[in-house]
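Review form for a predicted model. The reviewer records the input and the model, then writes brief findings.
Reviewer: anonymous (R2)
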Amino acid sequence: MTIRETSNVIPEVDFRDIDGLNQFVGRAWGEYSGELTVTQEMIDQFAALSGDHQWIHVDVERAARESPFGATIAQGFLLLCLLPRVRPPANLVIAGHQRVLNYGGETLRFLSPMIVNERLRARERTVSVQKHSKGTLVTTEIQMQSVNNEAVVLVYRLQLLYC
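Model under review:
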């Protein structure tokens, strides 16, 4: 097992070192990402792209009148799509691989609404490392949170295959 520290004091572990990578499983959450305000323009653009035009997302006046939130809310899948923009800072560098493949999601939960014009941030932790016939499968749990009310809005278990 070889764990090296990079210049930014972020541990670096070779993708083939299952024992070394497993040392990071179950550790505390990493640092939060920067913040991103979820705007009505984003919600409307996503509605146009996805076809999800439910009034609670796109009808500002009706949502102000009838929604229990007093405003529009972001589509759950919009939040998932914003993940690359609020990706948490790395607390581990997986090295030695030639490519990383998005293997899929193990679970996805939408826990609270993300109200328009609130700020979004994310944090991450490693939950499992498994040897795979084509490399190493790493599962991380990503938690997205509304900064304004500290509510967790999304929890996603992302699986990446390092080859």
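Findings: The helical segments are 18-22, 40-50, 55-58, 60-66, 76-81.
Further findings: The CA atoms of residues 82 and 163 lie 26 Å apart.
Recommendation: see findings above.
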